[in-house]
Amino acid sequence: MYSFPIVEPDPGHTKLRLSREGLEAIERITNPISSVAVIGPYRSGKSFLLNQLLSLSCDEGFGVGHMRDTKTKGIWIWGTPIELDIDGVRTSVLYLDTEGFESIGKSNVYDDRIFALATVMSSVLIYNLPETVSYCSPPLVVFIAVVYLAIREADISRLSFAVELAEEFYGRVKGQDVAFEPAKLLWLIQRDFLQGKSVQEMVNEALQRVPNIDGNKNIDMVNQIRDSLAIMGDNSTAFSLPQPHLQRTKLCEMKDAELDQLYVKRKEQLKELVASMVRPKIVQGKTLSGKEFVSFLEQILDALNKGDIPSTGSLVEVFNKGILEKCLKLFSEKMATLDLPRPEVSLQEAHDKSRDEVMQVFDQQHFGRHHAKKSIVQLDEEIQKVYKNVILQNEYQSSKLCEGLYTRCEDIMDQLQVLRLPSMAKFNAGFLQCNSSFEQECVGPSKTNYEQRMMKMLGKSRSLFIKEYNHRLFNWLVVFSLVMVVIGRFIIKFILIEVGAWILFIFLETYTRMFWTAESLYYNPVWHFIVATWETLVYSPILDLDRWAIPLGVMVSLFILYWRCYGRRKYGSQLLPLYSSNKSSPNRPRTD
């Protein structure tokens, strides 16, 4: 097998792009994937170190260069994964070789992207620190010098990036089987000066702040690195590796027997350490297969290529995107369960409650302790967009409901205007019922507008009814009195009915003639008594004479007809004071 690139530089050597040929080989892997990446300055022995970890010669493994320009371009991968059983799970471990920092013809931002991508994609990140200081330096000074000089000033921002990842992600998922777990950092110090103390003890001591009474900027910078790296805590490990041989340019030609035996021993220990640190890559709560690893790589690369400088914030946005969409869907589902229309206050309360619940879910699941604010703002903006649509739906449903109630009341008022038997009591009952049902059933933002329309319509209908009421009642009473005269004289021949009907007719006609207009009658106490009597007869909660006028009229007509034809023969005429006529009597006296 051989090594091949999975990420290559673009023509301008500022951004990264995927190498499809290499990715196809990764996509065929079905086991959970873990990856080990080596980073560091160019010509620091990264490719040689990876070959040593894989037990490969320089001819078999990653290409090793000794020239001033870097041999590795972008990120390369060894084509044959190492199969390991990790916690009972068969895991494919990929080894990644990265392009060295600060090689000729590259920009710092390109190095930042390489560093960021390796940091995010790897399960174990080996930071290779080459020999840079003299053997006579005190151990603590040596280590600080290694950190400060070997990494160089340009790497301070890269270390800050790694620490930001630890702050944003590691502190949240530590000890939990969830989401993106940053790579474990392995400081590999290639020196043979470390004596008396373990390299880990020296790392711990080196990460302690030192006083800076004089305000030296370099000490401040180193203290800043100390504080940042200390955050990673047990997520970082240090390991020392002596030089394999003094003739470094000939290392590829040497066998293990020719190398320093302490180096060979430590190399085997390093293999065991790396194997113990390796864990399947976990993203959003699950391990990654080959296809998922490639998809994850595409997401991260797209995020890192955005803008001029790669940032932790852009990565946080990538990881929060799915959670944001899930929370937004949850909010939409909660709002969809609301019964619309509803009052604006109630809708706002439901919105606030749903938003608080969704924000609580997002707070529990989102990534990023500092850079998540942008995602929170974005979620809030999306929630407001959904809420605006709900407001529009509520307004539409409210307008539709209130319009229907308004139209129903308008029809009722129109029907009350044309009652066969005009009744103020029935009109008032219908008026109150219509107004009450509208107040109870019309809800939402359109209620205020329709209330105003409703009041105008009801007021207009009431004024028109009152205006026509007395006039129609007057005509009804005139007709009624004449009808009763006919009935009392010619049909049932009941003199009291005829007399009463004549009195009513004469009162109505003579009063209007005496006082010029019928309107003057409406203020007379007698008229008020007549109206009260009429209202009592025409409408009550028990009997609505307007509704039953025709059936009752038919029944009365049938009764009168029956009485006229059969009642007098059977019961005689003594029940009613009927008219008597002697025209047919045999004893009727003659007149000349």
Automatic annotation (TrEMBL):
Species the sequence originates in: Lupinus angustifolius
Keyword Nucleotide-binding assigned: yes
GO molecular function, one term: GTP binding
Similarity-based family: Belongs to the TRAFAC class dynamin-like GTPase superfamily. GB1/RHD3 GTPase family.
PROSITE patterns in the record: G_GB1_RHD3
Taxonomy, superkingdom: Eukaryota
Location of the GB1/RHD3-type G domain: 30-129
Identification of the protein by name: GB1/RHD3-type G domain-containing protein
